[in-house]
Amino acid sequence: MSDISGSSGLEVVGGGIGGGNLVLGEQAAGDNRIQPTLTGVTEVRGQGGNDVIVPGPNNPDATIFGLSGNDSIFGGTGDNEIFGNEGNDTTYGLAGDDALYGGQGDDYLFGGDDDDRLQGDAGNDTLAGGSGNDSLFGGEGNDLLEGNDGDDVLYGNQGNDLLQGDGGSDTMFGGQGNDTLQGGDGGDSLLGDKGNDRLNGGTGTDTYAFTFAGGSDADTIVAFESGETIALGGEVFDALGGDVEAAEFTLVGTEAERAAADTPLVYVQETGELFFDGQLVATILNNPDLNAGDFEVF
Fold first, then answer.
1. Which helix (H) or strand (E) holds 110?
2. 270 assigned to some structural domain
3. For the chain, how long is the longest CA-to-CA vector?
4. DSSP readout, 142-165?
5. How far is Cα 42 from Cα 16, in angstroms, rounded to an integer?
6. What is the pLDDT of residues 93-103, one digit of tens each?
7. Which of 27, 163, 173, 217 has the fewest CB neighbours in a 10 Å radius?
C-alpha cells in the first residue's frame, strides 16, 4: 500500500491553502493511504484500488469520493460528504453533521457524533447512526439500520430489512419487503408499510402505525402494552374519519363471533387478530384487551 500525504502521486487542482481540490491521479490507482497534509483541501478522490482515505485535521469539511475498490474512509472534525461509490466500503463520519452514501456494494456506514444522514443505496448494507439525531435510508437490498443514541428516523426502503432504534424516541418506516422493526428504549413510532412486517416497540410507550391491510400486508405486533397506540392512516382507513368511536370498534372473544360484528374494526382477542372491513391488519401476539381509545387516525 502506498502512503500518499502530499503531492506525490496526486494532482492538486486550484491550490491547497484556501479551498483547493485534491484529486488522486491515475498513477496512484492501486491500494493507497491518502492523508493530505495540505490546508484547505475541499475534495479528495480515491479512484482505483482499495484505499484508506483520511482528510486529516487540516481539512475538516472535505468531500470524499471512494470511487472503485473496497475503501475505508474517515471523515474529519467538520461536516463531511462521503461517497463510497463502487465496492464494499467502510465509512466513518466521526464528528460533525455528515452525509454518508454507500453506493454500490455491501457497505458499512457509521455516522459518529452529531446529526448525520446515512444512505446505503444498492447492496446489503449496515448503517449505524451513532450519537445525535440521525436519518438512515437503507435503499436496495436487505439492510441493517441501527439508530443508536438520539431520536433517529430510519427508512428501510426496499428489501427485507432489520431496523433497530436503540436509545431515544425513534421513528421507523419499513418500506417494501418483510421487515423487522425493533424500537428499543424510548417512545418509538413503528410503521411497517408494505409486506408482512414484525413490530416490536421495546420499552417505552410506543405507537404502531398502519397504512395497509390484507394478507400480503398484514403485520405482527410482538407486544402491545397499556397506554400505547395503534395509528391507522392512508386511503385504506379513510372511512374512519377522525378518532375511532366506540360504535366503530368491536372486541370479540373468538373467531366464531367475528361474523356477527357489524363495525369496521373488529379485534379477536383469542387470536390477537385485528381486522378492518374484513381485512387482516395485524396480529398482536400478547392478546391484549383493546378498546376504541387505543386507536388514532392520521
1. strand 108-110
2. no
3. 81
4. S-EEE--SSS-EEE--SSS-EEE-
5. 8
6. 999 999 999 99
7. 27
